[in-house]
Every structure is written in C-alpha cells, then in structure tokens.
Specification:
This protein has helices spanning 6-11, 25-28, 31-38, 62-74, 140-155, 179-183, 185-198, 203-210; strands spanning 16-17, 48-53, 87-89, 95-97, 125-130, 165-167. The protein has 211 residues and is an alpha/beta fold. It binds zinc ion (ZN). The site of zinc ion has 4 residues, from loops.
Length: 211
C-alpha cells in the first residue's frame, strides 16, 4: 500500500519535504516505521478527508516550515509523539510529510458525539493540516495543494472516490481549521473532483497549458 503521496505531488509541481528532509527525530529513531505495524488503518479505502489547522506561526521559508514541523511533532498524541496529521500544507503551497498513509493518525475525535459517526474518526479518514495561524491567509497555492492531496488519496485507493471533506470543527469544540479555510472548502471540493476525473496534472501538462 502507498505510504506517501509525495511522488505524485512532486510530479504535479508541489514542493514536498519528507520527514527525513525536515529533520524529524521520530523518523530517525524508527517510530514511524514501528507505528505502521502497531496502528495500521483498516483494510480498504477510508471514508473521509479531514481538514485541520496547526495554530503555529506562518512559515515563509523551508527552514521555518521544517522548524514548525519538528515542533508539531512534539505535540502529537501518540507515544512517542509523532505528527498527528498525514500532511502539513503551508500557504506557499509547500507540503511537509506527516504521519504515513495506511497508519492511524491521532487528531480527529468525535468530541461533539455527532450522530452517525464513530468516536475515533482517525480510523475512518486521513487528516491534512494547514501549517499556520487562524489569521494567516489561505492562498490559492495552498487550496491547490490540498485539493491535489485529496485527489491523490482517492486515485491511490486510500480514500473512496467523492468522499466528504470535513472541517475538524464539525466534530470538535474548537474553530479548527478556521473561518478562512472553511470558506474555501467548496473550491477544494470542486478542484479535488476535477483532479480525480482528469487525473493529477503533471508539470508537463501545465507547461503546455501556459504555452
Ligand atoms: Zn483540528
């Protein structure tokens, strides 16, 4: 099973950083590899996409993003702490790898007891977090990267096609992922559907589109 979306995201022109590249101590000590055995996702495509916000400083450069990713790792609810989300996306549209695909995250719980949904939603979907604060802009580049992530999940069979995209606030007593991100969910949804229907773009396609 695919454990990372990075190759297809890079082919689509997204600047991506693996855990090794952003200097994850828990990658270095083998924690992520071990969790693949101890906390696998159930077989078959998951049902949902979840969107979160990390509530950390806006990052403009790779080194800022790497520092934030290492900080976010220390906040994880797992033992030892690992990044709770599968993906971290900055408002430059950059992608920082979080928890592996095929492995249960730890950040999406049905605290509101929304009827019809399980308590541990981490078993039923994958989580993407925008890596910034609530006041920071949610940009077009970021919307595109998030839509590519959701489409790539569906094309890889990790999430069922056309799965709902839920903001964390639907289930949690907090504003996550913030009003600016929630306002752009319809665009993310539409773009995701287009990418699934036509396949993820490649840099070559886009070169032609510009020419
Ligand atoms: Zn959240």
């Amino acid at each position: 099973m695919t454990t990372t979306l990075i190759p297809v995201l890079r082919a689509a022109g997204v600047e991506c950083f693996t855990r090794a590249q952003w200097g994850s101590p828990r990658q270095a000590d083998g924690s992520y590899a071990r969790r693949r055995t101890t906390h696998p996702m159930p077989a078959g495509p998951a049902d949902f996409h979840f969107l979160h916000i990390t509530v950390t400083d806006d990052t403009d450069r790779f080194v800022d993003g790497a520092r934030s990713a290492r900080f976010i790792e220390t906040l994880g609810f797992s033992t030892p702490p690992m990044v709770s989300y599968q993906d971290l996306v900055t408002n430059e549209g950059r992608y920082f790898e979080g928890q592996s695909y095929g492995v249960k995250g730890t950040h999406t719980v049905n605290d509101r007891k929304v009827p019809g949904f399980a308590n541990d939603l981490n078993l039923h979907g994958y989580a993407t977090a925008i890596m910034q604060n609530v006041a920071d802009e949610v940009t077009d580049a970021q919307v595109r990267t998030i839509a590519l992530v959701f489409a790539a999940r569906e094309l890889a069979g990790l999430v069922r096609r056309g799965a709902p995209i839920f903001p964390h606030r639907k289930f949690a007593f907090k504003a996550c992922p913030g009003d600016k991100a929630v306002a752009r969910l319809p665009e993310i949804d539409q773009m995701r559907r287009r990418f699934v229907q036509h396949g993820l773009p490649t840099q070559d396609d886009e070169g032609k589109a510009i020419a």
